[in-house]
Structures are given as C-alpha cells and as structure tokens.
Amino acid sequence: MESYPGAASLVERKFHVLVGVTGSVAALKLPFLVSKLLDIPGLEVTVVTTERAKHFYNPQDIPVTLYSDSDEWEMWKHRSDPVLHIDLRRWADLMLVAPLDANTLGKVASGICDNLLTCVIRAWDRSKPLLFCPAMNTVMWEHPLTAQQVDQLKAFGYVEIPCVDKKLVCGDQGLGAMAEVETIVDKVKEVLSQHSGVQQS
Ligand SMILES: CC(C)(CO)[C@@H](O)C(=O)NCCC(=O)N/C=C\S
C-alpha cells in the first residue's frame, strides 16, 4: 500500500461495537454475548462496565478490552491526557447496552452521568446506532416510570431490544428478562448490514 494521504481510509477497518453492561443479573450473559458478537466477521468489540455489573461475571471470561470507572481516572491526570469516555464515543460505530438495568435506564433518561458508561452515553453521537436491552424484575418493569424512561430513550433515537417474559432468577414469572443473546446478535447484524450498505453506496 502506497503511503499517500487517505490511504488508511481505503483500508476496510473493523466495525467497532461498544458493549455497555450494567447491574442486572442478566449481566451473567456477558461472556456468551461477547463471544457471539466476535463470531460476526469484521467486528471489533470493547466493553464498558459499571461497578455493580462486575458482580455478575468474571473478567477473565471477557476476551476483549474491558473498561471500568477507574480506567477513566487512571488515564486522565493532566490536561493533555486522553478523556476515556470521549475517546470511546469516537471509537465506537455502534453501542449496545446489554443488560440495561433499571438504575442506568433512569440515569440515561434524565441525563445523569456519574460513571464511565453513562458518560459515554451522555456524549453519544446520535447519528450512530445505540441499542439497549432492558432487564429488571417484573415489578420494576411494570412501574410506570419504566415505560416513560424507555420512551424517552426511543425519543433520543436509541433502539430498544425488548425484554421477554420468563421465570426470573428470583422466582417471579413475567416480563423483565433480557432478550435472548441470539435476538440481540441478530439485531446487531441487521444494523451492521444497513451500515455496510451505506459504505457500499
Ligand atoms: C438472568 C436471566 C438472563 C436468566 O434467564 C433472566 O432471568 C434475566 O434476564 N433476568 C433479568 C431480570 C432481572 O434482572 N431480575 C432481577 C431480579 S428477579
């Protein structure tokens, strides 16, 4: 490859998927979700976790870069240092928040950004797709706040991958279970095909 200006732009870089994970018990599916995303050719995956989500998975089961709040503060000590949540919003072509727990849903709907994940979302470039997978106990899902907040996120242009009706880990039966990983991956593929369509045009 000649080293003329713009040469790099001619090389098909990978499609960058940023996975956000929050503190629903559905976060136990993160290793499976990441591995199925990595099966999609041309994808590069990075994960941003909240502190509460860490309770549900083992970081050794996540074979990609995994950022959490301390990374932001380790990285920024002086004015010239990179700002991680801004670097991540630039790096990502698509964001997938799976699971989106009730706490982070509320924060995103009202613009609270008190951790790395909510800062990336608050800074998100809304011309890029942001998919979210709500997951919470049925009685939380049925609280009137939830529909208001989900509608607010859809009004921002974010795409809901709806929760499903299941027997939940606490024994309750009903809506609130995160969409199946296969459903989530199919949705990412669908958006990806639209995106690559744009690239071909
Ligand atoms: C964990 C999994 C994926 C097992 O199939 C499913 O139950 C689920 O998505 N639960 C999320 C709902 C939740 O956070 N419940 C919290 C209290 S009941």
UniProtKB/TrEMBL annotation:
<dbReference type="Pfam" id="PF02441">
    <property type="entry name" value="Flavoprotein"/>
</dbReference>
<keyword id="KW-0173">Coenzyme A biosynthesis</keyword>
<dbReference type="InterPro" id="IPR036551">
    <property type="entry name" value="Flavin_trans-like"/>
</dbReference>
<protein>
    <recommendedName>
        <fullName>Phosphopantothenoylcysteine decarboxylase</fullName>
    </recommendedName>
</protein>
<comment type="function">
    <text>Catalyzes the decarboxylation of the cysteine moiety of 4-phosphopantothenoylcysteine to form 4'-phosphopantotheine and this reaction forms part of the biosynthesis of coenzyme A.</text>
</comment>
<dbReference type="GO" id="GO:0042802">
    <property type="term" value="F:identical protein binding"/>
</dbReference>
<feature type="domain" description="Flavoprotein">
    <location>
        <begin position="16"/>
        <end position="191"/>
    </location>
</feature>
<dbReference type="InterPro" id="IPR003382">
    <property type="entry name" value="Flavoprotein"/>
</dbReference>
<dbReference type="GO" id="GO:0004633">
    <property type="term" value="F:phosphopantothenoylcysteine decarboxylase activity"/>
</dbReference>
<dbReference type="GO" id="GO:0071513">
    <property type="term" value="C:phosphopantothenoylcysteine decarboxylase complex"/>
</dbReference>
<dbReference type="GO" id="GO:0010181">
    <property type="term" value="F:FMN binding"/>
</dbReference>
<comment type="similarity">
    <text>Belongs to the HFCD (homooligomeric flavin containing Cys decarboxylase) superfamily.</text>
</comment>
<dbReference type="GO" id="GO:0015937">
    <property type="term" value="P:coenzyme A biosynthetic process"/>
</dbReference>
